Amino acid sequence: MGIRVRLPFEQEVNPFVREAFEHQTLFTRLHHFVLLSDAFIVAPGGIGTMLESTMIWQLLQIRHLHDTPLIFTDSMRLGLVDWTKQMMLHPGFELANPEDMKIPRCVDSADEAIAVVREHHAHWLAEQAIHETYDSTP
User: How confident is the model over 3-41, as pLDDT tens digits?
Assistant: First the structure.
């Protein structure tokens, strides 16, 4: 599936995409993307990637998204998390909570990112089984 905003310098939809959605604004594209996603794996990218990943981080922070993995796969994002910890947890001028810094998971490879998603999915399945047992109890 492709979710995009038509820009004059962008390429066409890749041939392997079965269903494409076009949006007039980057905001509606991001909103659609967030609604469809069960996990966010952030690969190397530019300013748009930075904007989208920090927006998702904020949505998780304020609990508008619940229990959705945000996984950073590049050293630039690790630097972002380190900078955020240093600047936003500055003693006497805290702008975030230490728990907020645990939201993104930083990994070194695609295999590690996949492992995080699988771990999250297994946890989700276990919770679903508990809810089904609880809901079916007379």
Answer: 555 556 666 777 887 887 777 888 888 888 888 899 999
**3-state SS class at 101:** helix
The three-state secondary structure class of 39 is coil
Structural domains of the chain in order of their starting residue, each with its CATH number: 37-136 (3.40.50.450)
Q: How far, in Å, CA of 78 to CA of 37, rounded? A: 22
Please give, one letter per residue, the 3-state secondary structure of 45-98. Answer: CCHHHHHHHHHHHHHHHCCCCCCCCEEECCHHHHHHHHHHHHHHCCCCCCCCCH
Q: Structure pTM? A: 0.79
